[in-house]
Amino acid sequence: MRKRPQPEASSSSSSASKSEPQASDEQIKTGSSNDIHVRSAKRSGLAWTVAFAAFVYATYGVYYYQYEHMPPPLTADQAGKRGFSEFEAIKHVKALTELGPHPVGSDALDRALQVYVFAAAQKIKETKHWEVDVEVDFFHAKSGANRLVSGAFMGRTLIYSDLNHIVLRIQPKYASEAAENAILVSSHIDTVFAA
Q1: CB within 8 A of 122, min separation 6: which ones?
Q2: Domain ranges of the chain
Q3: CB of 161 within 8 A of CB of 117?
Q4: Where in the cell is it found (predicted)?
Q5: Rounded distance, CA 123 to CA 159, Å?
Q6: Which residues make beta-bridge pairs with 158?
Q7: Nearest to 105 by CA among 115, 95, 94, 113
Q8: pTM of the predicted model over 0.90
Q9: Which residues contact 64 (CB under 8 A, 6 or more apart)?
């Protein structure tokens, strides 16, 4: 790049500027002249606006894909005996909330577990698909502990005692190797005191 000529302020400066040697094309290419200054290009406002718009669009795309683009919920008829029905699941949630508050250790929690959850597990066992076996087990835990490894209460240990549990095991009839492998889906139905 060539240096821009400065405007002539007086006649003495004009003669001085005329006597300064100009950089040749070879000096410009090689950068050997001391008078040549290279300036970094400045980003225009349009470039920053386009970059910001692309960032916002990409962020919205991730949000839409993760939270707004969910599969449609299925009814019991659409899911059949092999699928999962969101409509049936929300019916269970509503039925449990109608029982009122049932915090850990309360009689209300035991009633909710024995009256509603155990009955729902028995119904699953009775209406199961013909290719699977369903076992329902109701057991009592005298004591236990759970160490929290993340979240606001990280590092704390929850200790519990005298809790009832229901385990529903579903396994295929004709795959003997399935007994060695299992996926545990766990849930709790207790509520906080204020709920």
Answers
A1: 136
A2: 50-99, 103-194
A3: no
A4: Membrane
A5: 32
A6: 146
A7: 113
A8: no
A9: none
